[in-house]
Amino acid sequence: MKITVEEEKCCGAGQCVLIAPEVFDQRDDDGIVVLLDATPAEDRHEQAREAAAVCPAACIVLEDNA
Q1: Which uninterrupted H or E stretch holds 18?
Q2: 50, 49, 20: which is closest to 36 by C-alpha?
Q3: Lower Cβ count inside 10 Å, N or C end of the chain?
Q4: Do residues 57 and 36 touch, judged by C-beta distance below 8 A?
Q5: Is 22 strand, coil or helix?
Q6: What element of type H or E holds 45?
Q7: Please, what sign has the CA dihedral across residues 49, 10, 65, 37?
Q8: Is the whole-model pTM more than 0.85?
Q9: What whole-number distance in Å separates Cα of residue 37 and Cα of residue 21?
Q10: pLDDT tens, position by position, for the chain (66 residues)?
Q11: Do residues 37 and 20 touch, judged by C-beta distance below 8 A?
Q12: Looking at residue 66, what is its pLDDT?
């Protein structure tokens, strides 16, 4: 899995951080998403999928390698 984020679309809701804190974080000054792990281990794929699904701005893009 490869993850990219479209920072310009991010509204800073923080749902991704709550669901997958090992993969996503937020900037302190404005709450915009920070991608911590663009190629997470397989055991984090489900969390990444859930984070992308609940993102209100739809700024998380997932590419499965399968």
Answers
A1: helix 15-19
A2: 20
A3: C
A4: no
A5: coil
A6: helix 45-54
A7: negative
A8: yes
A9: 10
A10: 999 999 999 999 999 999 999 999 999 999 999 999 999 999 999 999 999 999 999 999 999 875
A11: no
A12: 55
